[in-house]
Design goal:
By secondary structure, this protein is of the alpha+beta class. The chain contains 14 helices and ten strands. The strands form two sheets. The chain has a five-stranded antiparallel beta sheet with strand order 2-1-5-4-3, sandwiched between helices. Strands 7-6-10-9-8 form a five-stranded antiparallel beta sheet. The radius of gyration is 23 Å and the shape is globular.
Length: 383
């Protein structure tokens, strides 16, 4: 009993150290690396995937950390997840009261009920998956997939509870990483033409243009994941593109709804948007898919800023009017609220975004999308 109690205290100490350390990470990849190293000593696992997600769609985005799974299988995993699987879907876990579950637990110890198990886990000698969605303020900011091999015991209730705590702790720094970065190299003033990638119905890459190669090189330089180079073109295709293509095919087949669209962040800190569409054959059946990568517009980035800084819809409206150079009275007239109410909202916006002036706010949130304000136009909170 004393030995068991000592082991329990030791596990709690390791978990506490994990939760404290991940708060110190500077970016998502470092966060994933620290969490993985610490978590393995509390909840042992044989392979893992750590993913950032787009909080607006819940879809996997950049970056991704893959451990002990090799470079193959990304397209297989997401084809099964989005087109055939019915067990522990990430889209369901993102809305569940408890966003954590195990494959064996959800199938009553009969993992063969899962198409993902039959097509992905079993061929790779894996027997169980513990997956979790990292949520903050109801929005999904990341995903965790832990795997155990056949010779390892399946994940238990204690493992699930630990990973639930870890996923909740991961969500907060992941959310903060969506905030604008003003350090490092400046982003290019203008990007190339949209990047285009063409995928066959099988999911194989058929062709791409030079702009797509340029964008993917920028993202590769930002780090993250083990890209799939298992194609004749030897083009490195990250896992999040495979999942976006699979999402488009799922929508075209009627299995899913919404749009196959994710926001990703490049080396310079600028946001890009990746969207996929599944074409139809002359017979009306889902056919090839096309992926477009291009700089994100302000309308694409603004909702991310809302979630990163926890701005209200009204605060976002006022922030956008400030970015367009409107004064307090003009904003009040447009929104049918008093100047005093506008000032109260601006004060709240400044507190949430940690700025002291309108010019600083615009520079912080919209540098990539608006021309910088001159010093003469900078206004203090009570102007």
């Amino acid at each position: 009993m004393n030995a068991s109690g000592g082991a329990g205290r030791d596990a709690r100490r390791r978990l506490a150290a994990l939760l404290a350390e991940i708060e110190q990470a500077d970016d998502a990849l470092e966060l994933f690396a620290r969490a993985s190293e610490r978590l393995r000593s509390v909840v042992p696992f044989d392979a893992a995937v750590w993913r950032a997600t787009d909080p607006l769609t819940g879809m996997m985005t950049h970056p991704v950390r893959v451990e002990n799974l090799g470079e193959d299988g990304c397209s297989v995993y997401w084809e099964e997840e989005l087109l055939t699987e019915n067990v522990n879907l990430f889209s369901d876990l993102a809305r569940a009261k408890v966003p954590t579950a195990t494959l064996h637990g959800s199938t009553g110890g009969l993992p063969d009920r899962s198409t993902l198990y039959r097509a992905f886990l079993r061929p790779r000698g894996l027997n169980d998956e513990l997956r979790a969605v990292a949520r903050a303020d109801g929005n999904p900011w990341g995903q965790i997939s832990l795997f155990r091999a056949r010779e390892s015991p399946v994940f238990g209730a204690d493992d699930t509870r630990v990973v639930q705590r870890v996923s909740a702790a991961l969500a907060r720094p992941l959310r903060s990483f969506a905030e604008p970065r003003l350090d490092g190299d400046p982003a290019p003033s203008s990007g190339p033409e949209p990047g285009l990638l063409h995928f066959a119905p099988s999911g194989a890459l058929v062709s791409f243009n030079d702009a797509a190669h340029q964008y993917l090189t920028e993202l590769a330089e930002a780090g993250g994941g083990e890209p799939d180079t298992g194609n004749a073109l030897r083009m490195a295709i990250p896992a999040w593109i495979h999942s976006t293509v699979s999402k488009a095919r799922a929508i075209a087949s009627g299995r899913d709804r919404g749009s196959a669209r994710v926001r990703v962040r490049g080396r310079h800190g600028r946001w890009l948007v990746c969207h996929a569409s599944c074409l139809r054959t002359v017979d009306g059946e889902p056919g090839a898919s096309v992926v477009v990568i291009e700089p994100a517009s302000i309308s694409e980035v603004a909702p991310l800023m809302v979630r990163a800084y926890r701005l209200t819809d009204r605060e976002l409206e006022i922030t956008q009017h400030i970015a367009r150079g409107l004064g307090t009275a003009e904003i009040g007239d447009r929104l049918y609220i008093s100047p005093h109410t506008v000032r109260d909202h601006i004060k709240s916006i400044f507190e949430k975004t940690h700025v002291a002036s309108r010019g600083e706010l615009v520079a912080k949130l919209f540098t990539e999308h608006y021309a910088p304000l001159s010093e003469g136009r900078e206004q203090r909170i009570l102007d």
